[in-house]
Amino acid sequence: MIEMQEVSKTYPNGVNALSGINIHIEQGEFVYVVGTSGAGKSTFIKMMYREVRPSEGTISVNGINLSKLRLNKVPLLRRNIGVVFQDFKLLQNLSVYENVAFAMEVIEEQPAVIKRRVMETLELVGLKHKARMLPTELSGGEQQRVSIARSIVNAPKVVIADEPTGNLDPETSWEIMNIFEEINLRGTTIVMATHNKEIVNTIKHRVIAIEGGKIVRDEAKGEYGYES
């Protein structure tokens, strides 16, 4: 599903963000990516949806070699990858329904299919009753639910989440995690970068720890391993 072989990344300013990364993530896995600030987690995550390209090595997602992928093919790749951000990245002038539907409209899906899938997905994240509201009328947790709905409405094989609970209160964070658990149970691979020690130590999954640009731990049902 996701494979990195001898991946390194050095930015133009000379910062060596990652070095010698080798990883294999199977279809249907749930993986936490942990580490201190500046460890290389964000670069690791961004490489999976071709936001960042490696300086060396190869990356494959869904059987596609991202290292050789032409720029005009990146949108096709991202149709099969859902991305959830810490700051939601919703279109503020569009309703909840329109924000989620947008992900299907860009691939020119049939209107009837869009309506059915959007409403099904909003029901999954508990927001069907707020479909016509604007993001500014929602709480932070509700906006993150919209972001998740948008990321999964096209039934991607992989969802990549970059600190999805980072701006949320503890209760809301658990609600968001329950949604991710449900998505994973349906067969979607989830890779989540997080600083939330309590979540990692309570909802057990594979843990990949990155420090100094290198993988220092890779454990099935691992612990967070850092102070909060």
From TrEMBL:
What SMART domains would the database entry show? AAA (SM00382)
- What keywords sit in the KW lines? ATP-binding, Cell cycle, Cell division, Cell membrane, Membrane, Nucleotide-binding, Transport
- Provide a GO biological process annotation: cell division
Q: What GO cellular component term, any one, is given?
A: plasma membrane
Name the domain of life. Bacteria
Give the residues annotated as coiled coil.
none
Give the ABC transporter domain ranges: 2-228
Q: Which CDD domains does this chain map to?
A: ABC_FtsE (cd03292)
- Single GO molecular-function term? ATP hydrolysis activity
Q: Pfam families recorded for this chain?
A: ABC_tran
Q: Which Gene3D superfamilies match?
A: P-loop containing nucleotide triphosphate hydrolases
Classification via InterPro entries? AAA+_ATPase, ABC_transporter-like_ATP-bd, ABC_transporter-like_CS, ABC_transpr_LolD-like, Cell_div_FtsE, P-loop_NTPase
Its membrane topology, per UniProt?
Peripheral membrane protein
State how it assembles: Homodimer. Forms a membrane-associated complex with FtsX.
Tell me, in a sentence or two, what this protein's role is: Part of the ABC transporter FtsEX involved in cellular division.
Q: Which family does it belong to?
A: Belongs to the ABC transporter superfamily.
Name by which UniProt lists this protein: Cell division ATP-binding protein FtsE
Q: Which organism is it from?
A: Mesobacillus zeae
Instruction: Name the gene behind this protein.
Output: ftsE
